[in-house]
Amino acid sequence: MARLVILGGGIAGQTAALHAKKRLGGSHEVVVVTPNSLWNWIPSNIWVGVGLMQPEQVTFPLAPVYKKTGITYYQAKAVSIHPEGDAENPQPFVSVEHTSPEKKGRSEKITYDYLINATGPKLNFDATPGLGPLHHSQSVCTFDHAAHAAKALDELVARMERGEKKTIVIGTGHGTCTCQGAAFEYLFNLEFELRRRKVRHNANLIWISNEQELGDFGIGGMHIQRGGYITHSRIFTESLYTERGIQWITRAHVKEVGKDTILYEDLDGNEKSVQFDFAMLLPPFAGVGIKAFDQQGVDITTTLFAKSGFMLVDGNYEPKPYDQWLPSDWPNTYQNPKYKNIFAVGIAFAPPHAISKPMINPKGTPIFPAPPRTGMPSGVMARQVAFNVTDMMQGKSTAPTRQASLAKMGAACIASAGSNFWSGTAVSMTMYPIVPDFQTYPDTGRMLRYTSAEIGLAGHWIKHLLHFAFIYKAKANPFWRVVPE
Amino acid sequence: MPEQPQPERQPYEQSFYPAVPTRFTKMMRTNLLWQFFRFVILNLKMLRMVRKH
Ligand SMILES: Cc1cc2nc3c(=O)[nH]c(=O)nc-3n(C[C@H](O)[C@H](O)[C@H](O)COP(=O)(O)OP(=O)(O)OC[C@H]3O[C@@H](n4cnc5c(N)ncnc54)[C@H](O)[C@@H]3O)c2cc1C
Q1: What separation in Å is there between the alpha carbon of A173 and the centre of ligand 1?
Q2: A66: which of A81, A154, A170, A262 lies 20 to 30 Å off by Cα?
Q3: What does the pLDDT read at residue A463?
Q4: Which residues of A touch B33 (CB under 8 A)?
Q5: d(CA A76, CA A90)
Q6: CA–CA gap between residue A111 and residue A94 (Å, rounded)
Q7: Other residues' Cβ atoms within 10 Å of the Cβ of residue A190
Q8: Separation between Cα atoms, residue A230 and residue A451, nearest integer Å
Q9: What does residue A187 show for φ and ψ, rounded to 5 degrees?
Q10: pTM, whole model, 2 decimals?
Q11: A77, β-bridge pairs
Q12: Contact, A117 vs A131, CB < 8 A?
């Protein structure tokens, strides 16, 4: 009996674990190591952050799901990977530290035959002084951050109800942030909610981000056919901001968040500031900081991980300028080149480079989005890797046979812009491929037929449906496999 | 239902240049019949996207 260990029980880890267990049945063991006891459908944290949902509606306990499916569950965090074992035993293992109240702090070794790293991001609030819920700004990255934001928002609204004017700043809290789409959703849900609570006239809303232009979203924006024109998502996005009366600051690296002032550097190197009463700024992401050691105990972290802390896989990591980037730089199988039984999926794998064009200001500060790895591609790559690994475990193949390159994959993304069954809206986007391919599609980098964006109530219905469908699937309820990634 | 915000557009300000939707366009965004149709189309589009990999 072989053992597959999956690190991280988030969107990618849960997808990989359920598919792997379904295919392996009782013949091999599937182990999930994850520090949390609850699973969180992160996209709906947006609605927790404006007080429309409670944390219980976006989470559920993991233990019963793993018990039902026969997956071994360690409530623990991986600390180090030992792909060659140690001096006593050459069997590869992971060192973990327990996080459950009963075993908190205890260490353990878990041996593996195959390892999938799906540990997602470290929310790197420390990159910007004053950033994050422990300091001066809010976050919606976790359900408890979002609940904290909702409480602060309630207090703000109470003041606005008394006639006080308030400035709200939403966006990215560092020049290298990703996940602009999440901040965008929070901004528009908040704007909608302020109107619903009849205090919008007392709010000055400002977007701040590291994008070159609005509508970049870390994917260099996208072109769509609309009204007889092929237009960039910048046009679409600027229109929405104008319609909702929101100002925007782009090309900004937030360098410090004070009690009521955000200091930022722009792409020209100027230092500027913006006052706020309420700010929700996303942190930059890094790898979660797992170390790696060889059999002699020598630190080989740089063999397994990039400087950013994300895991190296089968991408082309040779540094090269933007105009030499190729779709083929992007990984296909997510297999580590040195240790062929190790894979990384979701946010945990190291992208070969950004998707948006790198921009550096005269002071040397990088101000451009890191590439997003959203839910749908994270799920797809997790499923493909789980299929490859289970084939290898069952002796059906000796190497990965399925591929899931972001340069050959499309994505659908629904960004909520106000939550109400009758008057809500969402921006529904599809794109193909995610990483633009200017060789195949010279004008826009993407296939126009499959790349679209529209705003409307239908998108809100879909977003709501996805909330229930993905939680249903993650609970491994009957026919869960019918729900696509 | 929340009232629609009115963009405050001043000449030469940031918000003066972008395209803004007409009342008809805005109305269609929440028109139940049209949005039900778009719901079906969008789901088909997304399924096609899923099948593409
Ligand atoms: C507010 C917000 C809204 C979003 N909205 C959307 C959306 O609408 N659509 C969309 O497609 N995407 C959205 N995203 C992005 C989406 O959430 C991510 O793409 C997705 O969560 C990535 O999945 P993952 O499994 O790689 O990481 P995660 O889901 O973050 O999971 C990582 C898991 O690893 C665990 N872990 C961490 N450290 C360790 C360790 N040392 N050992 C073991 N386990 C560890 C974590 O506890 C966690 O359970 C949103 C993101 C945010 C923050």
Answers
A1: 18
A2: A81
A3: 95
A4: none
A5: 23
A6: 6
A7: 25
A8: 11
A9: -55, -50
A10: 0.96
A11: A97
A12: no
Residue A106, in any domain of the structure: yes
Residues of chain A with pLDDT under 70: none
In angstroms, the Cα distances linking A217 to A115, A312, A479, B51 are 31, 24, 34, 24
Q: Which residue of B has its CA nearest to A196?
A: B2
Residue A205, SS3? strand
Nearest to B39 among A191, A462, A485 (CB): A462
The pLDDT-based confidence of B2 (bands split at 50, 70, 90) is low
**Whether A418 contacts A188, CB under 8 Å:** yes
Contact A462 B32 (CB under 8 A): no
Distance, in Å, from the CA atom of A251 to the CA atom of A238, rounded to the nearest integer, reads 15
In a domain, A377, yes or no: yes
Residue with tokens 């499923």: A383
Owning domain of residue A332: 3-123+285-393
For A295, other C-beta atoms within 10 Å of its C-beta total 16
| Whether A444 contacts A421, CB under 8 Å | no
User: A439 in a domain, yes or no?
Assistant: no
Q: How many domains, chain A?
A: 1
Instruction: Determine, for residues B52 and A410 on separate chains, whether the beta-carbon distance falls below 8 Å.
Output: yes
Which sequence spans correspond to the domains of chain B? 20-52
Tokens (6 digits) for A305: 């991980």
pLDDT of residue A485: 85
User: Which residues are paired to A107 by β-bridges?
Assistant: A97
Check residue B6 and give its pLDDT: 55
Q: Closest by alpha carbon to A304, among A291, A287, A316?
A: A291
Distance CA A9, CA A21 (A): 14
Digit-coded pLDDT (tens) for A269-322: 999 999 999 999 999 999 999 999 999 999 999 999 999 999 999 999 999 999
Give the E-state strand segments of A322-470 in sequence order.
342-344, 411-416, 426-431, 452-456
- The CATH number of residue A315's host domain is 3.50.50.100
Tell me which DSSP letter residue A417 carries.
Answer: S
Question: Greatest CA span in chain A, whole angstroms?
Answer: 70
CB A114, CB A341: distance < 8 Å: yes
Cβ contact A242–B18 (<8 Å): yes
Quote the CA–CA distance of A409 and A29 in Å, as a whole number: 30
